[in-house]
Design a protein that fits this description.
The complex is a heterodimer of chains A (333) and B (684). Chain A is mainly alpha-helical and 333 residues long. Chain A has 15 helices and 2 strands. Chain B starts with a helix and ends with a strand. Classes of the chains: A mainly alpha (333), B alpha+beta (684). At the A-B interface, α2, α3, α5 and α7 of A face α7, α8 and α16 of B.
Chain lengths: 333, 684
């Protein structure tokens, strides 16, 4: 039944994807500035030539690399390429976007998926506890913490952690995804090095997001606690732990699943600023470069990745939601 | 007697005769036989004797054979016993051998272990420690890294460690430091530049470096990047170690530019594109730009498609590894100065932002770096890492506010410009936006303050107008010129409110801070100023058109590339800043030397080779710049070079050493000079 619902949603998925991709394409192409001007600015500084000379050099550097066809034709080519699995061409790097994604995305997925799972797990448990023990000390503390971390940009959190844990205490490496002196491969030294290097970026992300999950879970659990089936369970004298986990927790977590799916989707865009602080080689670096250099090709490819990620994650939620929530299953039926 | 009887008798007689004959014959035969028999008999007797003797001998032999057989049997038994004994012995010998072998092995093992223990216990000299030097820099991250200097974004921060120029030029003392070139001669009044190359130079792949490499490399750069082709008519290579540059006209500046260019392209690697590059340069020189562009399109595509992975140069370090966080370079043992290079490894940490570089410095991970740093962070770095020092050589440029001189703009009035110079506290602006910069105030003459003594005599400076912060003087100038202050705001003599936007490149944080401070001060003075941050890609094209409204942040006097005032005045009166301000540079201005045209003076300066005449021209240009104010310069940018002495490396020169002045436009050149001269060395 769930599969049937899923299949019915598939056309909507593709339509949404097409509309979002189209909008993205035209918005990106209307961002002011051009890759040539950005490069000229850089050449002018590096080579000490006049701006006009720099512009001429930059123009030549991109001759034959930038598409010069009308926008509508570029759009059609872009869609056709997407159908072939080709995300486009990064002009500023002179290489296919696919090559960049293949190498950079795994690092981002490693850090952000672990961070998301950890922050979600801790946040959900905290939120449940706060809701269950209303009036306790934990509630205000977590709320204040969430307000603080929500207000603070992830870049600052990352920087603070970096200064204290890596620079001052020397507990974590300062940069990169692994020790450059270790030969990459499937062996314990490399794996440990990867985990050691990923620990602080993960930590930065977890610190930033725990509060958010906790508050969301608290809100959801609080309303679940008012439900009749919970009161009935209490009246039946069921153990507190069972009520909290099986009755409240299981029901309260459902609304969070959709948010988690969206978060999983946006994860594909990387966390540019956090990656910048830790010199982490994820997709965030290329995202920042694409925006800074007005590299439309790279921008389009990476934005498409995020769009497809979010829409795809929502589709998966459609698939698993009836499994998690029998009420939805009945409604679907 | 019958006939038959007769015949019978005859026959009988014949028979008798025949018998007689036969008997006689037989007798004779028998006699002979008898003789022979006798002889035989005698022989047989002899034989018998012999046989007897033989028999006796045989008997003896039999006995002997029996004895022998017995002996043989005994011997066989003995041999058998011996064989058994030998077998047993062999087996035991083998066992002994094996056991001995085992013992030998064990002994060998023991010896090895003993040796290792001895080795460990022995107070041996410190093993050859790998000495390292750590800095920070940028590069395109893998998988985008390609190792081709002509590729997008080049080879990153490894550039000056991997490649070398013919000479390094030090603006601080106007000298050339030989690198791939050992000497040069100027001929035909400076129109021909002959460079003699160093012998015994190798590319990192082991191939020898020759004049052909210089020609190929520069021709490719002339074609692709437009370097120097406008004033280099021809390059000749009469032999492997001589390069001759034919210039369009003599100029001290061209020499600085040509000799300072790095040699990036080995002929054995890039030579296949030489002919195409040469053709494009010729087309450019002939003014056939469209044709040149078309051919350049193909050449650029071909050259940039070449992705060797890692660069090949002649420099003192070989790039071995590029990751997302680090570049790793090892000493090039065949480098011509390898005997002086005592640092084995250079590690370049990735420069993602100034904040991250500050953290590296605080953590003691870097031996040198040059992030622009606020005062408090600088003090924190020095406190946390007490072996850190700071030197501030000029970055060869001034920050400025450019006035808009286009038709109808109020800034064409010198009084208004002068009022701004007096109304803005430029020292305060410097403190706010770039604490460690050098003040330009009280002058505005266009000579970098760091080089002021070199170019402008004190008596000349004494006669220039000094623009010290003085809002009252500013107000008096405006009032005298007919401007009016109504409700605290200045109005033009025509009664129009003086309001304008101050454009600023949004990506330059120090410019933004300066713009905000200048706007605040001008608003306090009575102007109506709004700061407008503009993204870089629209800022530069924007300020070169009529779009921008009256004032913009700009570069003032900039001496990049040459370290010479000509470059600064070129920018103000002919180059980029002129294109922003449109200051009437081809108009004559009154000076103590009579009316002078700044654009003409600038062109004369470019061609003047006599140092004294150069100074004279510089003074005239300085006067016009200071008195007629094409821009308001407010600080000289200085590079903040943090360097740590005594942790990994030592031997940094004194801050007064002119070698620091090579830092702008490629600070790694400074490190390379120190390392290859053996000045910067590992801590013992």
């Amino acid at each position: 039944m769930a599969l049937g619902g899923f299949l019915r949603k598939l056309p909507y998925f593709f339509i949404t994807l097409l509309v979002a991709t189209t909008l993205m394409f035209f918005i990106v192409h209307n961002i002011p500035g051009d890759v040539t001007y950005v490069l000229a600015d850089q050449i002018r500084e590096e080579m000490g030539v006049t701006y006009e000379e720099a512009l001429e050099i930059a123009y030549v550097m991109y001759l034959g690399f930038r598409p010069e066809e009308p926008l509508y034709k570029q759009y059609v080519d872009y869609l056709l390429n997407l159908l072939r699995g080709n995300l486009g061409y990064a002009y500023s790097f002179r290489m296919p976007v696919n090559d960049i994604v293949i190498q950079a995305l795994p690092w981002t997925l490693l850090v952000l998926s672990l961070a998301l799972v950890i922050s979600f797990a801790i946040g959900v448990v905290l939120g449940l506890l706060i809701a269950w023990r209303r009036g306790g000390v934990l509630g205000p503390v977590v709320t204040a913490y969430a307000a603080f971390t929500d207000a603070m940009p992830d870049f600052i959190t990352a920087m603070l952690l970096y200064i204290f844990l890596a620079v001052r205490l020397g507990l974590f490496p300062l940069k990169g995804a692994y020790d450059p002196d270790i030969v990459p491969g499937f062996h314990p030294a490399f794996i440990l090095s990867v985990l050691h290097h990923a620990a602080l970026p993960i930590c930065a992300y977890v610190v930033e997001h725990i509060g958010l999950w906790a508050l969301m879970m608290k809100g959801s659990a609080t309303s679940t606690l008012e439900e009749d089936f919970v009161r009935a369970a209490v009246a039946r004298g069921l153990p507190e732990r069972r009520i909290m986990m099986s009755y409240v927790g299981r029901n309260a977590i459902l609304p969070l699943v959709a948010t988690l799916a969206i978060q999983l989707g946006t994860m594909l865009g990387g966390s540019t600023l956090v990656e910048r602080v830790f010199s982490y080689p994820g997709i965030g670096y290329f995202f920042a470069e694409a925006l800074m250099r007005r590299d439309y090709g790279l921008m389009q490819g990476l934005f498409f990745l995020i769009i497809a990620g979010i829409i795809g994650a929502n589709l998966i939620v459609e698939l698993i939601y009836p499994i998690l929530d029998p009420r939805v299953r009945r409604e679907t039926r | 007697m019958t006939k038959i009887e007769a015949i019978l008798i005859a026959l009988l007689l014949v028979a008798i005769v025949l018998n007689g004959c036969t008997i006689a014959y037989v007798g004779s035969i028998a006699g002979q036989l008898s003789d022979k028999m006798a002889a035989i008999s005698s022989g047989v007797g002899d034989l018998k004797d012999t046989t007897g003797k033989l028999s006796a001998a045989t008997g003896d032999l039999r006995d002997t054979t029996a004895d022998l057989a017995k002996t043989m049997k005994d011997m066989a038994e003995a041999t058998k016993d011996l064989a058994g004994a030998v077998g047993a012995f062999e087996a035991r010998f083998k066992t002994i051998e094996e056991r001995l072998g085992g013992l030998e092995d064990r002994l060998g093992g023991l010896e090895e272990r003993l040796g290792a223990v001895e080795e460990r216990l022995k107070p041996k000299p410190t093993p050859a420690k790998v000495t390292e030097f750590h800095i920070a820099g940028g590069w395109p991250l893998p998988p985008a890294y390609h190792g081709n200097p002509f590729g997008p974004r080049g080879v990153g921060a490894a550039y000056w460690f991997v490649y070398e120029p013919l000479f390094y030029y030090l603006p601080g003392n106007n000298t050339f430091i030989p690198r791939l070139g050992v000497s040069y001669e100027e001929k035909e009044g400076g129109k021909v530049l002959v460079v003699h190359l160093r012998r015994g130079v190798y590319w990192h792949d082991g191939k020898p470096f020759t004049s052909k490499d210089v020609k190929t490399s520069l021709t490719l750069a002339y074609a692709i990047w437009g370097w120097d082709y406008k004033y280099v008519e021809k390059i000749e290579t009469p032999d492997d170690y001589t390069v001759v540059f034919h210039l369009t006209s003599p100029s001290p500046l061209y020499k600085v530019l040509i000799l300072g260019r790095p040699i990036l392209a080995a002929d054995h690697i890039f030579g296949k594109w030489y002919d195409k590059a040469s053709e494009i340069v010729e087309l450019k020189r002939a003014g056939k730009t469209d044709e040149a562009k078309e051919k350049l399109k193909d050449l650029t595509k071909e050259v940039t498609a070449f992705k060797p992975g890692l660069p090949t140069g002649t420099g003192p370090y070989v790039l071995k590894k590029v990751t997302s966080s680090e570049m790793y370079l090892e000493k090039f043992d065949k480098h011509w100065a390898a005997d002086k290079v005592r640092i084995d490894v250079v590690r370049i940490y990735r420069w993602t932002s100034n904040e991250v570089v500050w953290a590296y410095l605080m953590a003691g991970k870097l031996d040198a770096s040059h992030p622009a740093t606020p005062k408090d962070v600088t003090e924190e770095i020095m406190k946390v890492q007490p072996k850190t020092r700071l030197v501030l050589p000029s970055d060869l440029g001034t920050f400025a506010v450019a006035f808009n001189f286009r038709e109808g703009q109020p800034w064409r009035d010198l009084n208004l410009r002068k009022a701004v110079l007096y109304a803005v506290d430029r020292r305060k602006v410097r403190e706010v936006c770039y604490y460690y910069a050098k003040d330009v105030a009280p002058y505005n003459h266009g000579i970098l303050p760091s080089f002021e003594k070199q170019w402008l005599p004190e008596d000349f400076l004494a006669n220039l107008t000094k623009y010290e912060y003085d809002p009252e003087k500013a107000a008096k100038i405006l009032t005298d010129a007919g401007y009016k202050k109504i409700n605290g705001k200045w109005h033009t003599p025509e009664g129009k409110l003086i309001e304008f936007e101050l454009w600023v490149h949004s990506g330059y944080s120090d410019w933004v801070l300066a713009a905000q401070e200048i706007a605040r001060q001008l608003n306090d003075f009575g102007f109506s100023v709004k700061v407008r941050p503009v993204p870089g890609e629209t800022f530069w094209p924007g300020i070169r058109t009529d779009d921008f409204n009256q004032l913009t942040m700009e570069w003032g006097a900039v001496w990049w590339g040459t370290g010479h005032p000509y470059t600064g005045y070129y920018r103000l009166y002919l180059g980029d800043t002129y294109k922003t301000s449109r200051f009437p540079a081809d108009k004559a201005y009154d000076t103590p030397w009579g009316p002078l045209v700044p654009s003409k003076l600038t062109e004369q300066l470019a061609a003047e080779t006599d140092p004294e005449k150069q100074k004279d021209l510089v003074m005239k240009l300085a006067y016009i710049t200071n008195e007629y104010l094409p821009v308001m310069m407010y600080l000289e940018k200085r590079i903040m070079i943090f360097h740590v002495d005594g942790v990994r490396v030592t031997g940094w020169p004194l801050s007064t050493d002119p070698v620091w002045t090579i830092a702008p436009g490629g600070i790694e050149r400074f490190y390379v000079i120190l390392i290859t001269k053996g000045i910067l060395k590992p801590v013992e």
